[in-house]
Amino acid sequence: MRFLYILLAIIQFSFAFHAVKTGRGGMWVTIIIVFPVVGCLAYYFLEVFPQSREHRTVRKYVRDIAKALNPDGELKRRTEEAAVSASVENRVKLGDECLERGMFDEAIRLYEGCLEGPFANDPGILFSSARARFYNGEARQAEEILARLHKNHPKFRPEEVQLLHARALEPLGETQRALSLYEILRDRYVGFEAKYRHAVLLQSLGRAKEAQELFAFIVAKARRSALESEQQWVKLAWQEQQKAAA
Question: How many domains does the chain have?
């Protein structure tokens, strides 16, 4: 029983610290302290889980099922919403749908049309615009947007911004800068994508031993724990190991 009280106290402290650190206000701290079990559960499901990788994975599965049943439904809905009300929110959502469907030119036009007035330096729109530029083969423009984003919003999704920045630097031939970013991400990025892309770059530069060490790490780590969404990187790393062994 004493162990349970200690465990609950640790959980309370962790959630209270998280609430303070993320600026969610003293109200949550009070709820967590006054109502230990209910408060912690409420904080997790209302504040932590919606921002978690697991929640994003669940949402992705739901979207995938919906699109399999009606592949053009979401695009049509977003287009109709933007036509009725051309608000920044509606145009960004339409841009997101265009980006996901590979309609990069359309996505770029929508995002850049939103980067004006009070949204001129909106971090979310800048990041989406950089992604659209990168996937459209415009690495230099993507790199410039990401540099602007980092300058104005250094705390905005830093790992995701750095990963995309590293990828944009590669086709520009700025491999040393890309390697520096991958090194920073090595112990910070959650998941295997950054490590896999780092290894591929190392291999392309003739640093095969270092690359194979990273591929081996990914495969070994996956045996113990790996989300289903990470399996593509595990499979690719395993394939690279097989090529090297052949």
Answer: 2
Q: Which range of residues forms the domain containing residue 25?
A: 2-43
Structure-token match 């303070």, residue found: 20
55-102 residue pLDDT tens: 455 455 545 554 554 566 777 888 888 888 889 999 999 999 999 989
Report if residue 15 sits inside a domain.
yes
Q: Domain for residue 180, yes or no?
A: no
Domain membership flag for residue 91 = no
Per residue in 130-175, pLDDT tens? 999 999 999 999 999 999 999 999 999 999 999 999 999 999 999 9
Residue 146 lies inside a defined structural domain of this protein: no
